[in-house]
Design brief:
The chain is about 70% helix and about 0% strand. Helix 8 packs across helix 9, helix 8 packs parallel to helix 13 and helix 11 runs antiparallel to helix 12. The termini are far apart.
Length: about 425
């Protein structure tokens, strides 16, 4: 394939489009982070509170639901993929990009329990096709798939700060194998590297921050048999819980299909009630139960003793339920909420005999994110990078494999429609009236 001139040209073109795609992804992430800081930290402080008041989510999340519902109902592409279906690639057109961006910029900073990875994949793939159309590059089914995967990889590498994560993630999301896998992965790996270089440079040049995978965990003690035994118990249990969270999200998507705007607002309000109950029960900030959990995961890892047992149980219950509502109604990605829930479960279970904090968090995060994404290799790579050590790799791999098997064998719930398809399916034909 490398001897074919058209493939070499496509490879060079993918490297070139990685630059503008990574730049757009960088500013997209900066804007999301700045808006989140403004809404959940700066505004409450300007109004005289030390943290967001308990009722903050009751105001912000219904507003998010209204905007996202209108985008889904009125704009092409329906705001992007439904997150209850996990991460997906393909199907994004340049006409759908405004809706994808607007749904993410409205929903995520206002408190949706979702991450930015799914909008980034859609944004990167759509931009790659847009730039290809500007350059009048010849497009067919194969080249469209290749360019979409390459653009998505460039964008997602900006979020994870590592080209390996972007390439492996898109390899599994694309779902191809054999020669096709090589054809998609080489451009994806190239654009991920270019995107990471551009992203890293802009972080240093501008001084702006979009988040980091370094969550500050200490170096763990050597693994022993107790850790392995706990994997066998905990990984399937966490996979079971996360799986049914997603099944609930699929039912929420089915509910939203009936009356999109109204029911999206209702689901977002349900998430807002969960966030409010968490704040009332614990006295802590509602932001911990809202949002993606990316920032809260770092705080949790650096100072786990600041969370009482009651607070951990409450955040697992209320954030998990809010996650279910958001999976079926709003737009975003499932990665960071599942990582946070797995990490919180790990901190809660760390005192178990023979376990410990780092192994427990490794098991929790690997099992949760694998059950959410159904992408075991990507989940392993991501969690290993988060942990920042090689001592727990065996636990991570074992937890991911067991979680994947359990999640695949359980009932999957209602069908999730493809990108841009109305969740209710094609309209039914009206019956002819009898004369």
């Amino acid at each position: 394939m490398l001897r074919r001139p058209e493939y070499r040209k496509a490879l060079v073109f993918c490297g070139l489009i990685g630059v503008p795609v990574a730049l757009v992804a960088f500013w997209f992430l900066v804007a999301l982070k700045q808006l989140e800081q403004l809404i959940w930290t700066d505004w409450p402080e300007d109004l005289g509170w030390k943290q967001a008041p308990w009722w903050w989510g009751l105001v912000m999340l219904p507003v998010a639901g209204l905007i996202v519902g209108l985008v889904v109902a009125r704009l092409p592409g329906r705001g992007g993929h439904i997150p209850a279906a996990g991460l997906q690639s393909g199907g994004v057109t340049k006409e759908a990009l405004p809706g994808v961006v607007l749904a993410a910029m409205a929903g995520l900073p206002l408190g949706a329990v979702l991450g930015p990875e799914a909008p980034l994949i859609a944004l990167g793939g759509g931009l790659a096709l847009f730039f290809a159309a500007l350059a009048r590059a010849p497009q067919n089914e194969a080249s469209t798939a290749l360019l979409g995967a390459a653009g998505a990889a460039a964008a997602i590498s900006a979020l994870f700060g590592n080209p390996l994560v972007g390439a492996v993630l898109l390899m599994e999301v694309a779902g191809v194998g054999g020669p096709q896998l090589f054809a998609v992965m080489l451009p994806a790996l190239l654009t991920s590297g270019v995107g990471a270089l551009i992203f890293t440079g802009f972080v240093h040049w501008t001084g702006l921050d979009t988040g980091s995978l370094d969550i500050g965990l200490p170096v763990p003690p050597p693994l022993d048999w107790a850790d392995v035994l706990w994997v066998v118990v905990l990984a399937p249990a966490l996979a079971f819980l996360v799986h049914w969270t997603f099944v609930g999200g699929r039912f929420a998507a089915r509910f939203v299909a009936a009356r999109t705007v109204r029911n999206t607002v209702l689901c977002a309000a349900g998430a807002g009630i969960c966030v409010t109950l968490y704040a009332l029960v614990t006295g802590r900030s509602p932001a911990e139960a809202a949002l993606s959990g990316e920032a809260a995961l770092s705080t949790l890892a650096e100072n786990p003793h600041a969370w009482s047992v009651g607070a951990l149980v409450a955040v697992l219950a209320f954030k998990g339920l809010a996650y279910t509502f958001c999976l079926g109604s709003l737009r975003g990605g499932p990665v960071f909420p599942s990582l946070f829930l797995g990490g919180a479960a790990g901190v809660l279970l760390a005192p178990l005999p023979g376990l410990g904090l780092v192994p427990a968090m490794a098991i929790g995060m690997a099992a949760s994110v694998t059950a959410a994404l159904r992408l075991p290799v990507s989940s392993v790579v991501l969690v290993v990078l988060l942990l920042g050590n090689v001592e727990t790799v065996a636990l991570v791999v074992l937890a991911a494999v067991m979680s994947f098997v359990v999640a695949q064998l359980l009932p999957q719930g209602p069908r999730i429609p493809a990108f841009g398809e109305h969740p209710a399916g094609p309209a039914r034909r009206s019956r002819p009236r009898r004369s």
